[in-house]
């Protein structure tokens, strides 16, 4: 099943295009039901999440943008919410950020699944696997490899995934490497749902702290992350967020001028 039919299955009216990238505008429980159905029916579907940072990268990296066109994309964070409000008059129904959504999806899936983990450091991947196994005891969690492998090691890693053929493959290598790696190496022979999860394994392992719940509820997790890792993240947030919103406003005006041209 290709991505366009997956999007059609969830309803064309549920798609909102942010900077040229179609994102599913569905509720948390609807997204869970969709992924559960895809795993049950073994319909190969690549999954990722769009936030302001990824959207900015796709604007300047056409290879990444092209790869995203074949993913089922869920909305992550306040940036894409603001974009949806500017472009469509309403935010996304729910914030489906992978750090909260993926563990919740695995917890809620009652049918036992095989879940493979690829990425992060070996220590963090093993710790994340233990954490997931404790909150979702019905599944079998397998660490395939850390995210620091050479091109020479790739065939063996891909072969191991194909032999295991997990229901879910969590790929944690950062953007855009994880999406490009899935696009280039993973298809229906390897797993059912490859999900690009960013820093999820680092968060689950406890190696990278999460914002307190009150900050998450106020949609200020990005501010907490900036405070924790200013050297690595200042460009992403301090430069990236205003740039993203500028691009969104440009999209709105170009759409408005196109509409005006159609009227004339």
Structural class, by secondary structure, is alpha/beta
* SS element count, helices: 13
| Form type | globular
Report the strand count: 8
Radius of gyration: 18 Å
Which strand order do you get reading across the main beta sheet? Answer: 6-5-7-8
The share of residues in helices is 40-55%
| Number of separate structural domains | 1
β-strand amount:
5-15%
Quaternary state of this entry equals single chain
Keywords: Glycosyltransferase, Transferase
Pfam family, one: Glyco_tran_WecG
Protein name: WecB/TagA/CpsF family glycosyltransferase
InterPro entries: WecG_TagA_CpsF (IPR004629)
Write a compact overview of the structure shown:
The protein contains 13 helices and eight strands.
Structure description:
The protein has 264 residues and is α/β, with parallel strands linked by helices. 55% of the residues lie in helices and 14% in strands. The protein has one domain. It has helices spanning 3-9, 28-40, 52-60, 62-68, 78-88, 98-108, 122-135, 154-164, 177-185, 200-205, 213-217, 221-228, 230-263, and strands spanning 15-18, 21-24, 47-50, 72-75, 114-119, 140-145, 168-172, 193-196. Strand 7, helix 9 and strand 8 form a beta-alpha-beta unit. The radius of gyration is 18 Å and the shape is globular.
Give a quick set of tags describing it.
264 residues; two-stranded antiparallel sheet; four-stranded parallel beta sheet; 8 strands; alpha/beta; glycosyltransferase; 55% helix; WecG_TagA_CpsF; single chain; WecB/TagA/CpsF family glycosyltransferase; transferase
């Amino acid at each position: 099943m290709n991505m366009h039919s997956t999007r059609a299955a969830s309803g064309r009216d549920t798609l909102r295009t942010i900077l040229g990238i179609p994102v599913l505008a569905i509720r948390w429980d609807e997204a869970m039901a969709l992924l559960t159905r895809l795993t049950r029916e073994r319909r190969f579907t690549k999954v990722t999440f769009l936030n302001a940072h990824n959207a900015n990268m796709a604007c300047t990296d056409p290879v990444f943008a092209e790869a995203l066109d074949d993913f089922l994309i869920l909305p992550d964070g306040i940036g894409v919410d603001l974009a949806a409000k500017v472009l469509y008059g309403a935010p996304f129904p729910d914030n489906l950020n992978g750090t909260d959504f993926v563990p919740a999806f695995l917890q809620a899936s009652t049918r036992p699944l095989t879940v493979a983990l690829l990425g992060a450091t070996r220590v963090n991947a093993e710790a994340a696997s233990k954490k997931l196994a404790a909150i979702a005891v019905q599944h079998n969690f397998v660490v395939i490899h850390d995210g620091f492998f050479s091109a020479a090691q790739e065939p063996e890693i891909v072969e191991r995934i194909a032999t295991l053929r997990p229901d879910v493959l969590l790929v944690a290598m950062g953007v855009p490497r994880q999406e490009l790696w899935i696009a280039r190496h993973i298809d229906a022979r390897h797993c059912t749902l490859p999900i690009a999860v960013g820093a999820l394994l680092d968060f689950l392992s406890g190696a990278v702290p999460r914002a307190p719940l009150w900050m998450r509820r106020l949609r200020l997790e990005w501010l907490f992350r900036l405070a924790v890792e200013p050297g690595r993240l200042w460009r992403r947030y301090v430069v990236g967020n205003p740039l993203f919103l500028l691009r969104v406003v440009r999209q709105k005006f170009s759409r408005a001028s196109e509409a005006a041209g159609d009227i004339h």
